[in-house]
Model the fold of this input.
Amino acid sequence: MSAPFVAKLRRSDLKRCAELEQVLFPGDDPWSLESFVAEIDRGHYYLGAYDADENLIGYAGLSLAGKPPEVDAEVHTMAVDPAQQGRGVGAALLRRLLARADEHRATTFLEVRTDNDPAIALYRKHGFEIVGLRKRYYQPSGADAHTMRRPAADSPTAEGGGPS
Done:
């Protein structure tokens, strides 16, 4: 498989996002089409990953809050079609989200299920560390979530920053 093409999420793909949510998060509260529309309408940064035929195979969203030098970013969602997992799609999406956060020198936060080892490994590889636990965060399953943080790009503890 060739590398996915990552671009601004197309409004025409929001229905597919909601369909993937149903597949990926059936035991929790999957986002609806209306949730995705609201996120786009709020002006949050959403990306789609597309295969060679321009089919949506993944998506991710980021919000920014605050004013320099105190800007925080939050990964609102990130998901990859099960048939495409393990092929670098999530990494490609995450790199683009983090590039956006880095443009604003933002510390980036996210929540991830404590039992989602592949996602946790991906986030750690990109400079995130676990900083908290949110009990029963995902509903209705009651699954716990780790809160993870990646320092701002200009921070001495950011990936690639500081002394070697």
